[in-house]
Every structure is written in structure tokens, then in C-alpha cells.
Amino acid sequence: MNVPAIQAQLLTKEYSNGRGCRDVTITVEKGEAFGFLGPNGAGKSTFVKMLAGLIRPTSGSAALFGHPIGTLAAKSKIGYLPELYRYQEWLSGEEVVRLHARLCNIEKSVADRRIPELLKEVGLGLRGRDRVKHYSKGMQQRLGLACALVNDPELVFLDEPSSALDPIGRMEVRTILERLKQRGITIFLNSHLLEDVEVLCDRMALLNNGEILRHGKVSEILNKRTSWHFKVGGFSPFLLSWLKNHTGLQISQAALDKNQDEEGIIVSSAIEGSTVWLEAEVESDEQVGWLNSLMIEQGLTLYEVSRKKERLEEWFLDAVSGLSHRGEQE
Ligand SMILES: Nc1ncnc2c1ncn2[C@@H]1O[C@H](COP(=O)(O)OP(=O)(O)OP(=O)(O)O)[C@@H](O)[C@H]1O
């Protein structure tokens, strides 16, 4: 039987002040990377703490690999990197990971082999003997990742794993997570770094005020709104109205001149002479081919055709716009 890595049914935590998270129902399959998004105070950490067995739900139920949350069987399968952590600063990084290995009941010979490997993997190989009090925030976060992986977990909960890291560190952590995913480890990622979610996660859910607002496959969310850009030569306004009339599609001269493209290069709407960018909203990829041939038939030169993706940030902002985020308010 294929048991999901996480199955939560109407999981609810209501703190004494009425905050927390409410009726969260999700399933995460084995080997999936799942992104959990939401504004500050939405309830993401609360949800993860319940799954990790650190706080008790007020109502609802959840199981990890079929084992009820909070049980030893469930806990033995997980690694957890909490968002706010402070490690024993009088210990060395290596000693902190060793302490976690002992708490997980890992044999000394296994720990002796695994700890140096892990420290190397998270980029602390050369600083493992230094005391934690001499670690930067980014190094402490890497140390947290090593602790979360020490028991060779099947599922890792990562609460903002890159928040203290510089861009190089973020890229390195993303590479580590990609490697974990390739090894079939299930990843549950709380993150405000939407780019990480975009690159790594298969599915995601958006939490607001403790409740799931939206969820879906990352690939579908990114491709839902399909606008295409066409860089064309030989353009005239007459041809634009002709194309609109003959296709019935929304086509406009793209206002790219004030925007930056993905590489950060300023792109211009009037490239040279009559070369312009057009933007068309299409319903299917077939329409793009049809539009291409119509343009060529009308004597336009096609220099470039590209899909304009809806980035996750747009999706996120659109979902929460106009809603209250009481998590951070009094
Ligand atoms: N122990 C607690 N007692 C009372 N309220 C709490 C407690 N822990 C969290 N809260 C409140 O519950 C809500 C959800 O908090 P939580 O930390 O789960 O949000 P989050 O989505 O992880 O936020 P962030 O993105 O800022 O980390 C917030 O309003 C928070 O103030």
C-alpha cells in the first residue's frame, strides 16, 4: 500500500489568544517536495510544529507514513529544521551534530562516519571544530540543516532554511535540497523565497490567517495565464488591428520598455525602425503556431517568440491582495 508521507485532516491549533491554524487538510506523497507559503503569521510554523510532534493539535488528525503524529514511529522518520533556533554556543558544530545523533539513538560508529560527511555537505567541513559562538547566522543555519539530516530522515521539515544566508549560501542550500529530492526524500518547505519553491517544489499550498487559501501544482500555477511575446519586424499599426480582427485574440503592443527581462536587461518596445514586441493572450499552444503563420503570411518577420510565465510572486500577491493578514496584527 502506498501510504502518503504526510496526511493531515482538518488539523487545527488554536492558541489561547485565538490564533494558530485551522482545518488544514493536505496530503503529501512520498518523494514530493511541497512548498508551504503564506504571509508572516499565517500559521505555517504552527502547522509544522504539530506535524513534528512539538505541539498538540486542538482538533483534527495527521499521520506521517501512516503513523499518527507525535508517536515515536512518526518522529523517527523525520528531520526538522526549526525557524528560530539557538544551538549550544559553548559546543563546537561537530559536537552539536553529535548531540543530535545521540538524541536520535544513532550508533557511535555510524555517527563517526556520518557527521564529517554531513558537515562537508552543508559547507561546514572546515569549521566543524569551531565553537558555535564563533559561527555567523548563516553558519548556524547550515548547522541546523546538518542536525535535521543526521538521522537520515525520509521526510524533512524545513522552516525557512535559507533566511540567514547570502545569495551564494542560498544557491548551495537549494543544491543540497535538490540532492535530497533526487534521493527520494520528501521535503516540506516553509519559505518566503518563492524562487526556491518555484525551482524545487512539485506542489504547494498558500496559507492565510491560518487557513489554506489556494493550493496546486507549481507547474500548473506557473503556466496558467499564458501570455506570449513576439518580437516582430515590418510592423505597422494597421497590421495589429488586422491581426486582432482575424484572430479574435487579445493582442497589444507589449509595454516592455519600462520593464526588465529575466536577466535584468532593459528591453525596449521599439528595437529598431518598425521592430516591436507584441503580447498576445492565448488559450492553447496551437494558437501560438497559428498566430506565427498568420504573422509571416502578412509579411512580418518573426525574430523571437517566448512564453511569459506568471511568476509565483505575482500569484502570491494576487491571492492575498485585499485580504487581511491578522497574523501580525494586534
Ligand atoms: N505559542 C503561541 N501562543 C500564542 N500565539 C502564537 C504562538 N505561536 C504563534 N502564535 C501566533 O499564531 C499565529 C501563527 O504563527 P506562526 O508562527 O505559525 O506563523 P508563520 O506563518 O510561521 O509566520 P512567519 O512567516 O512569520 O514565520 C501568529 O499570529 C502568531 O503570533
From TrEMBL:
InterPro entries given in the database record: AAA+_ATPase (IPR003593), ABC_transporter-like_ATP-bd (IPR003439), ABC_transporter-like_CS (IPR017871), P-loop_NTPase (IPR027417)
Key words of the record: ATP-binding, Nucleotide-binding, Transport
Protein name stated in the entry: ABC transporter
Family: Belongs to the ABC transporter superfamily.
Keyword 4Fe-4S: no
CDD domains noted in UniProt: ABC_DR_subfamily_A (cd03230)
A Pfam family per the record: ABC_tran
